[in-house]
Amino acid sequence: MTLFGYDQGVFSGVIVTDDFLILHGLLGDTTKISTLSAIYAVGCFFGAVIAFTVGERFGRKKTILIGTTIMSVGTVIMAASYSLPQIFVGRIILGLGNGINTATAPIWQTETSKATWRGKLVILEMWMNIAGFAMVQWINYGLSFAGGSVAWRFPIAFQFFFIFILYATVPWLPESPRWLVAHGRQDEARSIMAALEAKPEFDPYIITQMQEIEFSVKYERENSLSWRDILMGKKSETGDTKTLRRLLLGAGTQFIQQFEGINIMSYYLPTVLIEAVGLSNTMARLLTAINSITYLVFSFAAVPLVERIGRRGLMLLSTAGQGLAFLIITILIRFSSNPENGENIAKSSIAFFFLYYIAFDQLIANED
């Protein structure tokens, strides 16, 4: 997930680098720049869809390695790019690989961790994501002083640091016991379960866990619904499980999380600070990097807040905070054209960019 966070932030520095913009004929062409930024998310979407079938056929480990291999191809194409079509293709391929990985990793983590550790590991996954985002912002800021092509080629190529870590570790990690049981490999599943729990293979606890997994897999096969049945709200043979409602609640929350504007901020914060607020390129990168640290620090505050306020209350508070931040930013930038003190009005909006990230922190921790 650190690689995912890194990818989310790397392009924000790339699209404010003059060498990149001039080389690819993008200087002043906001339409192509926005399309280039968005095409990565399109790749992620289709990668996540592909993970549905690939993940079940090849297993969690191989699927992660497939996604990582696709990402490495996209990284090479982008880092070596000398033309606009090349960078477009690289962004799409990179998104495909990342979509596969980010759709597979949380499932694999859940299926190979103790029940008592799952919540903590999900929170850790979120922190690693934000840490990757913060790391690339400081890399972007530091390399802005170097100038030339290294200012954008190196941050893109540095993704190989995380890719190599995945190649070096994933083959040695355990496969999902649930996936193994679903494919008739009970002995392997039992061995992995015993290793994960540090118990003998025929310990009563391991036997019980295996029986629960086998029952769950069998139940899903016998009572499965097609996507058409789910979308039409059809009930299973055992009664109404409200599958459609649960799907909309889970997927809808994730959709709203993205629709609230986090990717706009991730891709365009330096651009907005330069074009709308009037900051220099260096200062915009520096504030973006400082903001990423604030983003990381306040993510830790979300955990105790969930216990105090509750998930629903924290979600509403987070959404209200984001809406308020965007409203004030819009108003301040609108009046920044005032000839008397417009510059000061625009700069006062900077605090509310920080507020937006702090508010968003509480939402993602709440969903996790």
Taking pLDDT < 50 over at least 5 consecutive residues as the criterion, the unreliable ranges are none
Oligomer status: single chain
CATH topology of the largest domain: Growth Hormone, Chain: A
Top CATH class of the largest domain: Mainly Alpha
| Overall 3D form | globular
Q: Ends: how far apart?
A: 14 Å
Largest sheet report: none
> What are the secondary-structure elements, in order, as H or E?
HHHHHHHHHHHHHHHHH
Record field, number of beta strands: 0
Domain count: the total is 3
- Helix content bin: over 70%
Mean pLDDT: 85
Q: Cα-atom Rg, whole angstroms?
A: 23 Å
Give descriptors for this structure.
single chain; 368 residues; mainly alpha; Growth Hormone, Chain: A; 3 domains; 0% strand; globular; carbohydrate:proton symporter activity; MFS_Sugar_Transporters; transport; membrane; transmembrane helix
Please specify the SSE layout and strand pairing:
Blueprint lengths: L1 H13 L3 H6 L6 H29 L1 H20 L4 H28 L3 H29 L6 H8 L1 H11 L7 H6 L3 H12 L6 H19 L4 H5 L11 H33 L5 H29 L1 H24 L7 H6 L2 H18 L1
Pfam family, one: Sugar_tr
Subcellular location: Membrane
Main location: membrane
Walk me through the structure:
By secondary structure, this protein is mostly helical. It folds into 3 domains: about 1-175, Growth Hormone, Chain: A, CATH 1.20.1250.20; about 175-220; about 260-368, Growth Hormone, Chain: A (Up-down Bundle). About 80% of the residues lie in helices and about 0% in strands. The protein contains 17 helices and no strands. The chain has helices at about 1-15, 20-25, 30-60, 60-80, 85-110, 115-145, 150-155, 160-170, 175-180, 185-195, 205-220, 225-230, 245-275, 280-310, 310-335, 340-345, 350-365. The longest helix is centred in the last third of the chain and has 33 residues, at about 245-275. It starts with a helix and ends with a helix. The model has no long low-confidence stretch (mean pLDDT about 85). It comes from Eutypa lata (strain UCR-EL1). InterPro entries: MFS_dom, MFS_sugar_transport-like, MFS_Sugar_Transporters, MFS_trans_sf, Sugar/inositol_transpt, Sugar_transporter_CS.
